[in-house]
Write a structure and sequence with these properties.
The structure holds 2 protein chains of 2 kinds.
Chain A lengths: L1 E10 L2 E11 L4 E6 L5 H8 L7 E6 L2 E2 L5 H7 L1 E4 L11 H8 L5 H14 L1 H5 L10 H13 L5 E5 L7 H16 L3 E6 L2 H7 L2 E6 L2 E7 H6 L1 H7 L5
Parallel strand pairs in A: 3-8, 3-9, 6-7, 7-8
Antiparallel strand pairs in A: 1-2, 1-4, 4-5, 9-10
Chain B lengths: L2 H32 L6 H17 L5 H28 L3 H23 L15 E3 L2 E3 L1 H23 L1 H11 L1 H6 L4 H23 L11 H14 L4 H21 L4 H15 L14
Antiparallel strand pairs in B: 1-2
Helix pairs in contact in B: 1-5, 1-8, 1-9, 1-10, 2-3, 2-4, 2-8, 3-4, 3-8, 5-6, 5-8, 6-8, 9-10, 9-11, 10-11
Classes of the chains: A alpha/beta, B mainly alpha.
Chain lengths: 235, 292
């Protein structure tokens, strides 16, 4: 469904991604792992059009995404939940959600909103509350709900467990598992390699802007290098 | 100062303040959404007023229509400024954006002088007729129009910001532009819309206040400075603050002018300094702005 082929992209004079190729099939959860600065976030930003593709191509279904604006990429059915949640602090929970479905007609927005409130009951209770008053875990739920608002076929998740208490991290990963059942494909960028590999079908490991390793989650969990570097194995 | 004089000065100050509020609200709207302090707000209004003047005198367009045409012209000017000046610089340098508005201000002054020459002209008030007496207060008809226009504009702006999705998007951009882009909000069109609304407000404000002065390329200069004072007093961050700030400045200025006519204009600069020293967040500013 998603094909990133030989993509080069970056900021200013620097290329962060160097000929990265990854793919994702319908219904899959694919994890992208790697250290800080490996290019994980850059990869997501390149897919959603926040950064220009310098070389290579990004296709989604039969659509070429190269050169599209973030707004146009959302229209194609891809949503992006950014690292750090980026909730609008002074907008209400409901306004936060509605903005994520900006392109939709009003009637459709309403039904998506109801769907989100059913799925995340905590948000229904807080719908008139300012986003900035939510706890970290609640904000992450709101961020996920925002990602789901436009009814995407593919969600890009950037570090959804970052900065959350262990118990809340459990809730987040449970939610992701639920999403898979609802038929949304997920490209997951995470520091938490152990949990990600438990959840994902396949994974890629990025090292300095290149795919160093790829395989099924099972294969990678068994890989000695992965164990040592990312799963906290002893050196 | 008797009570009657005080009341009259206050109400008349409110009408002047309403114009400061209009200019200030436009500046804050653009500042909050696009992160650009528009130093050309006053002169955009000045330029629109020249266009309106020649619509009335040369083209003999009826007055009520001129008001609508002028507001529309303001919107178009704002749209063009954002689309063809701001947009191409936005990704490069923030300082250049602000310098660009300063340049724009000079451009409008130069254009006005070049096209219409600098000779001061009398601009007829929107409505004429005897002043109206409300209790002890005597108010010119134009003043009443100004007050009503400011109230209506404030109402429309409020509805835009809090009841439309474009307005909500504008507020979201002011809080977290990156997040707005990630969510797929078409930020360039929101920027254009906000510039259009802000510049239309500049046109309206200038048109309303020009009968007090004479029409010349520099007539909005002081108004712009006072609108800035209003914003600083209101706390930079909110359109509401700019409105209240404008009204307060208008009233205080009028009272000061009655007692000490010589320091009327410089007094406002002193106010800016004091506000910035004593309460830099202004009356309604909440905290340090997130965007900086």
């Amino acid at each position: 469904m998603l094909r990133v082929e030989q993509v080069v992209s970056g900021y200013g004079a620097i290329d962060v991604l160097n000929h990265v190729t990854i793919s994702l099939d319908k219904g899959e959860i694919v994890a992208v792992l790697g250290a800080n600065g490996a290019g994980k976030t850059t990869l997501l930003r390149t897919i959603t059009g926040l950064i220009r593709v310098r070389k290579g191509s990004v296709t989604f279904g039969d659509k070429v995404l190269n050169g599209l604006s973030p707004a146009e990429v959302v229209k194609c059915g891809i949503s992006h939940v950014p690292e750090g949640r980026h909730i609008f602090p002074d907008l209400t929970v409901e306004e936060n959600l509605l903005l994520a479905a900006y392109i939709m007609p009003r009637s459709q927005q309403k039904s998506r909103l109801d769907a989100m409130y059913t799925m995340f009951s905590i948000l229904a209770d807080r719908r008139k509350q300012a986003g900035g008053t939510l706890s970290g875990g609640e904000q992450q739920m709101l961020a996920l709900a925002r990602g789901l608002m436009p009814n995407p076929r593919l969600m890009l998740l950037d570090e959804p467990s970052l900065g959350l208490a262990p118990k809340v991290i459990g809730t987040v990963f449970d939610t992701l598992a639920r999403l898979r059942e609802s038929g949304v494909s997920i490209l997951l960028v995470e520091q938490n390699a152990k949990r990600s590999l438990e959840l994902a079908d396949r994974a890629y490991i990025l090292v300095t802007g290149q795919v160093a390793l790829e395989g099924t989650a099972q294969e990678l969990s068994g890989n000695e290098m992965v164990k040592q570097l990312y799963l906290g194995g002893t050196r | 100062m008797s009570m009657d004089i005080f009341l009259n000065l206050t109400v008349r100050g409110l009408t002047t303040g309403a114009v400061y509020a209009l200019v200030g609200m436009g500046i804050v709207l653009i500042l909050q959404t696009t992160n650009v302090m528009n130093f050309a707000q006053g002169d955009t209004g000045m330029f629109i007023t020249y266009l309106a003047f020649f619509m009335i005198t040369t083209a003999k367009v009826p007055y009520s229509l001129v008001l609508i045409l002028a507001i529309a012209a303001g919107a178009v000017v704002g749209l063009l400024v954002e689309r063809f000046m701001m947009r191409s610089v936005r990704s490069r340098s923030h300082l250049s954006l602000i310098m660009l508005t300063l340049g724009l201000s000079l451009l409008f002054q130069g254009l006005a002088a070049f096209l219409f020459n600098t000779e001061p002209r009398l601009f007829p008030p929107l409505v004429s007729g005897d002043p109206i007496k409300i209790g002890p207060v005597i108010l010119g008809r134009q003043d009443i129009v100004v007050l009503l226009a400011a109230i209506v504009t404030f109402g429309i702006l409020y509805l835009f910001l809090y009841r439309t999705k474009q307005g909500t998007a504008a507020r979201s951009i002011s809080q977290d532009e990156y997040a707005a882009r990630v969510l797929g909000i078409p930020t360039p069109s929101i920027y254009m819309l906000v510039w259009a609304i802000g510049s239309a407000m500049a046109g309206l404000a200038a048109l309303l206040i020009v009968p007090r002065f004479s029409l010349e390329p520099s007539f909005m200069g002081l108004v712009q400075v006072k609108a800035f004072t209003a914003i600083v007093l209101g706390g930079m961050g909110s359109v509401f603050g700019a409105a209240v700030g404008g009204l307060i400045i208008g009233v205080v200025e009028n009272l000061v002018a009655y007692q000490f006519p010589a320091i009327k204009d410089s007094f406002m600069l002193i106010v800016i300094v004091i506000v910035l020293l004593v309460m830099p967040q202004g009356l309604f500013g909440k905290r340090q702005q997130r965007r900086f």
